[in-house]
Backbone:
């Protein structure tokens, strides 16, 4: 039998050193990795934690017996119309673009409101809003706001009569 490959450990002292090295070297490597990973995460940990556990949505409960607050034309525009009319998506005339609104303004308020309520081209009926969320009067105010931004002179629509008490 050939003895070309001899033992690396030739004394009990070398054995003890190898046992300690095989235990402490991986431990030191793990510790250094933990320090390296945690270096990038220094900062306000409470804000980070709050952002991580914040709710996905919120519920707003409203008393059904209270009268509904009517939105202005600008509020309806920002909530419903701006997603297309701010950028001109799907051929929608941009907010304040007089040349794009000129042919539409010739239809007058009733024609514009009819287009909004029924839908036209890529625009869905009511601009995609629900009648429970946005009333016809509020959509009319948004029509006036959009048209007047492009140089139209449409008057504000008349407010609907308040509902009779039951």
Residues:
């Amino acid at each position: 039998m050939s003895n070309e490959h001899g033992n690396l450990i030739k004394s009990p002292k070398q054995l003890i050193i190898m046992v300690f090295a095989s235990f402490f070297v991986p431990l030191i490597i793990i510790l250094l990795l933990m320090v390296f990973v945690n270096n990038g995460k220094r900062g306000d940990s409470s804000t980070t934690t709050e952002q991580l556990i914040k709710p996905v949505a919120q519920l707003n409960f409203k008393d059904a017996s209270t009268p509904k607050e009517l939105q202005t034309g600008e509020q309806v525009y920002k909530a419903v119309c701006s997603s297309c009319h701010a950028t001109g998506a799907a051929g929608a005339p941009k907010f304040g673009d007089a040349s794009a609104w000129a042919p539409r303004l010739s239809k007058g308020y009733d024609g514009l409101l009819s287009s909004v309520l029924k839908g036209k081209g890529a625009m869905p009926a009511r601009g995609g809003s629900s009648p429970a969320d946005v009333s016809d009067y509020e959509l009319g105010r948004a029509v006036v706001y959009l048209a007047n931004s492009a140089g139209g002179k449409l008057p504000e629509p008349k407010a609907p009569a308040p509902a009779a008490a039951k």
About this structure: The radius of gyration is 35 Å. The chain has a mean pLDDT of 80. The first helix runs from residue 12 to 39. The CA atoms of residues 30 and 36 lie 10 Å apart.
